[in-house]
Design the sequence.
């Protein structure tokens, strides 16, 4: 999986600051064998204020401006938050707090890891990735499911 150097730097900081997160979306799809384009890095983060504070510390070290960090810290992550974004495509990073049909704690417990330059990065497991894409109406998600299932079937035969 190819990441921009800035993305790898951020992922390394998230791991170092013990932010509970999983790679989801296009990069997770690519990780499981379907090479396709993606316009951002989607990270699913645990929805609580302690994790928000660890995220803010990682983002501070990453170089996010204090004004933006203040806005982030003012958000109550125990409430109704869904997406927080930084940057512009294709280097855009989206932090999601909810995914359809899967629970964060279960997915985090059963996560997979990818090793990128010696850093173990958590990624949503295959079955949870498929589930998370089943309840959407986006054609891209339906294509992801079809291709991932085709690849898995081919690998088993």
Sequence:
């Amino acid at each position: 999986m190819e990441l921009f150097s800035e993305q790898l730097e951020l992922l390394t900081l998230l791991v170092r600051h013990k932010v509970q997160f999983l790679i989801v979306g296009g990069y997770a799809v690519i990780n499981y064998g379907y090479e396709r384009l993606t316009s951002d890095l989607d990270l699913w983060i645990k929805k609580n204020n302690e994790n928000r504070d660890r995220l803010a510390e990682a983002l501070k070290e990453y170089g996010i401006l204090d004004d933006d960090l203040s806005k982030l810290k003012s958000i109550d992550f125990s409430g109704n938050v869904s997406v927080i974004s930084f940057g512009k495509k294709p280097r855009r990073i989206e932090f999601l707090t909810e995914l359809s049909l899967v629970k964060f704690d279960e997915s985090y417990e059963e996560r997979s890891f990818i090793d990128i330059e010696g850093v173990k990065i958590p990624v949503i497991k295959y079955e949870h990735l498929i589930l998370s894409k089943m309840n959407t109406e986006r054609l891209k998600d339906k294509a992801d499911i079809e291709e991932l299932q085709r690849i898995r079937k081919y690998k088993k035969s």
